[in-house]
Amino acid sequence: MFYDVNQDGKVDWDDFLCSLEKVSKLNGWKAEDERKSAALESLKMIWESLKQKADTNSDGVVSHEEWLQLWADCTDAILTKREFPYWLSAYMSFMFDAADTSGDNVIDKDEYSKAYVEFGLTPEQCDQAYNTFTEGGKSIMNRELFSKLWHEFFISDDKNSKGNCLFGKCDW
């Protein structure tokens, strides 16, 4: 779901285009919409940066093996510096903006559900996830919380971390 949007077992530019189409549909962006053009440019930069780091055989595809190697290489740097590679931070911003369809810098439960159902989750998974990381609505899903959950998703080794629910799957 997360990077392999078309679920073909690899990550390539087509996944980013597929993601853009889902986000455009979700946000009601037409082909000529400036926001769609800006999102496309952002995704191009993310893909090129990701490809440079992960596509070791330069075939334009990040295979499962290349993906695992990328994370093996990145893990120590991320844990030491507590800083993500550019492509991962930029994708975090893209995903937040994609779900924040109202543009108010808060992802409410309805926005979260609509966004992640579009990416293949069930409404029930969305409800469970949102309730988990907002503590039943006590916390507001703003950029700060989203960033915290994003970091937990990628670097926490605690299976009970709320960040594990960010993309809908709470049980690992």
UniProtKB/TrEMBL annotation:
Keywords: Calcium. SUPFAM superfamilies: EF-hand. Pfam families: EF-hand_5 (PF13202). GO terms for molecular function: calcium ion binding. The keyword Mitochondrion does not apply. Residues 1-26, 87-122 form the EF-hand domain. This is Scp2. It comes from Bugula neritina (Brown bryozoan).
